[in-house]
Design goal:
Elements (H helix, E strand, L loop, with lengths): L6 E6 L6 E8 L8 E4 L1 H5 L19 E2 L8 H6 L3 H11 L7 H7 L9 E4 L17 H12 L7 H8 L11 E5 L2 E7 L8 H14 L7 E4 L7 E5 L3 E2 L2 E2 L2 E3 H4 L14 H10 L4 H17 L10 E5 L4 E4 L29 H6 L9 H23 L4 H18 L8
Helix pairs in contact: 7-12, 9-10, 10-13, 12-13
Length: 417
């Protein structure tokens, strides 16, 4: 294959922090799949990290073809801007709505991509410095994000320029990253179109999950006086100047999102893949617990790009990442989740949740049922720890979700309010 205008892929090594060229991507025409090949120097160095342990095995001299995303490899799609970032780049560069994902890869700067990958036109790594507003700039950041969302002129031209240079985080809501010491936080303000206080709802749902013993991302809610409601969520793919290897469940499942077939969106299948890539059994059980929690609270935005794995350098293996973007649907009580809870089933019922429980690592159905019932008790017992801090409307919403979820998932002999 003749390579034209290759895009080189860089990786920040998880052990030393050194940036290395891991491979190159190229695409001939719109009607052909893209191609990725590991760099000979990367193979010769015998570095152990595949950038995608499922779809891109660490083999030299092999042209890996991309069959999804119009010819872009899954893990590279992970590093692309999503809805919000694309809107910014479309405005800045007059890109058409059907622009190829690789166009966003070429245009977006490397300063704030997701995970530890970056791309560029040079063979040697060329990486932008990680520049983010500081915590004391939170109010200005929120004001600027709202102005950008409403297509208003800059409130702070310098801050606007900083945000425009780092539009790579995913999701549809306006967002920006700020730094507090060695930590990075994703900041998401309330939007005019919100039918409920979504930042507050997300924050207290994450707190509820944590209080239930689950590994949920840390968050902080801000609102003083008449200021906008804002949630900031700790990023698990950043620490100081180090970027951590991360990969979405969409990539692990080889399932396209958005736009792909839901046949591949599956919690049990993801649990099996976690085992395949070396994650411990407790991560499979944690995934089962998150599935149940999402069913209880009515989070039907649990699509495969809202789950991820992260490489743990201390353990030298992939682990399930902390849970993120866990937000109950505020407008209606879902009857199903976005991901399958068992083969071919999305419905929020006890039968469906337990049907493929052994694929999460349970010894048998009896062990899975005992675990589920204990988990339901824990989730119910944890709710009062967050309920006291909720405004009345959100307290009612989550209390009703808990009661209805328990009725769907608890054993018939168990009585819940």
């Amino acid at each position: 294959m003749t390579i034209s205008k290759p895009l080189f892929v860089y990786l920040q090594r998880p052990d030393t922090g050194e940036w290395v060229t891991v491979g190159r991507y190229a695409r001939q025409r719109d009607d052909e799949p893209g191609m990725f090949m590991y760099a000979p120097s990367y193979i010769d160095a015998r570095l152990p990290w595949s950038v995608d342990p499922v779809n891109l095995p660490l083999i030299g001299g092999i042209e890996h073809l991309a069959q999804r995303y119009r010819g872009l490899h899954d893990v590279l799609r992970d590093t692309c801007p999503d809805t919000w970032g694309r809107q910014l780049l479309q405005r800045e560069y007059q890109l058409p709505d059907n622009a190829h994902d690789s166009d966003y890869l070429r245009i977006a700067r490397n300063g704030d991509r997701w995970g530890a990958l970056a791309t560029g036109a040079a063979r040697k790594p060329s990486i932008d410095a990680l520049r983010s507003p500081k915590l004391q700039q939170l109010d200005g950041l929120v004001e600027e994000l709202q102005a950008m969302s409403e297509r208003r002129p800059p409130v702070d031209a310098r801050l606007r320029k900083m945000l425009m240079s780092t539009p790579s985080m995913g999701g549809a809501r306006p967002k920006g990253t700020l730094r507090d010491g060695e930590d990075y936080w994703l900041v998401k303000p309330i939007m005019q179109s919100d039918v409920a206080d979504i930042p507050r709802l997300e924050h207290f749902t994450l707190k509820w999950g944590t209080a239930s013993g689950l590994n949920f991302a840390q968050s902080v809610h801000h609102q003083v006086g008449g200021a906008p409601s804002v949630v900031r969520v700790l990023r698990f793919d950043r620490k100081a100047d180090r970027r951590k290897m991360a990969i979405s469940a969409a990539s692990l499942l080889s399932a396209e999102y958005p736009g792909g077939l839901r046949a591949g969106w599956s919690y049990p299948l993801l649990a099996q893949i976690l085992q395949r890539i070396g994650a411990p059994l407790r991560d499979q059980i944690e995934l089962f617990d998150r599935m149940v929690f999402n069913a209880i609270v009515g989070n039907d935005d649990d699509h495969p790009r809202n789950h991820a794995a992260i490489y743990d350098i201390q353990e030298k293996r992939w682990r399930l990442s902390p849970a993120f973007d866990v937000v109950p649907n505020p407008e209606m009580e879902p009857k199903a989740l976005a991901m399958q809870v068992s083969a071919g089933r999305f419905d929020i019922t006890r039968e469906a949740v337990l049907a493929d429980a052994e694929l999460f690592g349970f010894k048998d159905q009896n062990e899975a049922e005992l675990h589920l019932d204990a988990l339901l008790d824990t989730i119910a017992s944890a709710f009062p720890t967050v309920q006291a801090e909720l405004p009345a409307e959100l307290s009612t919403l989550l209390r009703d979700r808990l009661a209805n979820g328990m009725r769907q998932l608890a054993a018939r002999t168990t009585k819940y309010p």
